[in-house]
Design brief:
Strand content: 15-25%
CATH architecture of the largest domain: Sandwich
CATH topology of the largest domain: Jelly Rolls
Helix content: 40-55%
Number of domains: 3
Distance between the termini: 142 Å
Shape: rod-shaped
Order of helices and strands: HHEEEEEEEEEEEHHHH
CATH class of the largest domain: Mainly Beta
Largest sheet: 6 strands, antiparallel
Radius of gyration: 70 Å
Structural class: alpha+beta
Keywords: Membrane, Signal, Transmembrane, Transmembrane helix
Number of strands: 11
């Protein structure tokens, strides 16, 4: 699959390279593409976001006080150059970039003698597209107390077949105590690589020095008259420049195509790498998740088993302890003192009954054993004698019973009463 992709990309690369020489032509102004230029409707005031520091506390009323100036370029890409002479007469430069709202400051310099000029430089990235423009420049100083000797707008043009060319245009400005502003009309072509705005000082020049710079470009029609245009060159210079431009364009297009192929290849490689990394990550996450779920399930089963065993053991222990408690209550918890007392009383009564019964039987048995009945004499027998003898026998037997004669008496009385009741019922 990768071989097919690389083969396709190589074919596209060869096809793209073939027509480059056939379509090469001399660039003309009509071929330029107009790029929208910022205007006052979408620009921000350069002094709307002023900072305050020790350098800003000087009591100077700037010329721009109360006005609203806008910039149509990215001021953070504008570079300032402060040119001064040291004590040895050497020309030195203090440089840096403006802030996003156009502010800069130059502090007191150690070996400072005098100031030559200060310029603001716009490189190719912030210069507008080729065309005619009205340029408005404004600088608001936060020191003041000095004047300028002159102002210039400088073209810097670069040609591949010629040396770099510098062209300056003097402009008139309105100035007051370090502030200045001016408007001028210029023409910019494709050869302009840098545009600078120069302000020259009348001695003595100030330090510290700083403030807010703003510049805005307003597009003019092609028929407009401008006071400053790039210098013209000979036809040979133009032909050489066009050849160099076309050659450079071909090289740039080839480099662009190669870069695009490399970008596409790198993008495909990165996407494949990301896909495999994502796939590996998904598998790794899935594997880790399955392992984690398996470990969690095993741990849950182990915990449930341990909980069941612990619960059964606890229930068994509770049952055993409960049974032991109930057994102890049955064996040792019953209060038998009252029953024992009753048993003792019953035992005593039974013992007393046994003693009384033994005493009765002993008395009866003693009397019976001592009973002596006289022999009945037949020779004296008569009915009366027989009755007397039986009566005596019964009396002696009754007496011999001792204490036992009481129940016998009661029994005989009860028998007599029953006989009488029975007789009465029969008669009635």
């Amino acid at each position: 699959m990768i071989k097919k992709v690389l083969s396709t990309l190589l074919s596209l690369f060869v096809i793209a390279l073939c027509p480059l020489t056939a379509f090469a032509m001399v660039a003309t102004p009509s071929d330029a593409v107009r790029v929208p230029v910022a205007s006052s409707s979408n620009a921000l005031p350069s002094q709307e976001y002023m900072e305050m520091d020790d350098f800003d506390t000087l009591d100077v009323m700037p010329l721009s006080d109360g006005d609203n100036y806008t910039s149509t370029v990215d001021l953070s890409k504008v570079q300032y150059y402060y040119r001064y002479m040291d004590s040895a007469g050497q020309l030195r430069t203090e440089t840096g970039h403006l802030t996003s709202d156009g502010y800069f400051s130059v502090p007191l310099l150690a070996d400072y003698s005098s100031t030559a000029y200060c310029l603001f430089s716009l490189d190719k990235s912030v210069i507008p597209n080729p065309g005619k423009y009205s340029v408005s420049v404004h600088f608001g100083s936060n020191t003041g107390g000095f004047t300028y000797s002159g102002f210039q707008v400088e073209y810097i043009q670069s040609f591949k077949s010629a040396n770099t060319k510098f062209t300056q245009l003097n402009v008139n400005a309105v100035q007051s105590s370090g502030d200045y502003s001016y408007d001028t009309a210029i023409q910019i072509d494709s050869s302009v690589t840098r545009l600078t705005f120069i302000s020259r000082f009348n001695p003595p020049a100030p330090l510290p020095y700083g403030g807010y710079f703003s510049v805005s470009f307003t597009r003019l029609s092609n028929a407009s008259d401008v006071g400053f245009s790039p210098p013209s060159y000979t036809t040979s210079d133009d032909i050489n420049q066009n050849i160099a431009d076309n050659t450079g364009q071909m090289v740039e297009k080839q480099d662009t195509i190669i870069d695009q192929i490399m970008d596409v290849t790198e993008t495909i490689s990165n996407q494949l790498t990301a896909f495999w990394n994502q796939l590996a990550g998904e598998f790794t996450n899935l594997y880790n998740k399955m392992n984690q779920q398996h470990a969690d399930q095993i741990q849950a089963d182990r915990n449930n088993t341990e909980d069941l065993i612990a619960a059964e053991e606890s229930n068994t222990t509770n049952i055993i302890n409960n049974n032991n408690t109930n057994t102890d209550k049955l064996a040792y918890g019953y209060d038998s003192s009252a029953q024992d007392q009753k048993n003792d009383q019953l035992g005593n009564k039974l013992n007393e009954y046994d003693s009384a019964e033994s005493e009765i039987f002993d008395s009866v048995s003693g009397n019976i054993s001592d009973f002596n009945m006289d022999d009945y004499k037949i020779e004296d027998s008569s009915l009366l004698a027989g009755i007397v003898w039986v009566s005596d026998f019964m009396q002696q037997l009754f007496v011999s019973m001792g204490l036992f004669n009481l129940p016998v008496t009661i029994s005989l009385v009860l028998i007599f009463v029953v006989i009488m009741i029975g007789y009465y019922r029969i008669r009635s």
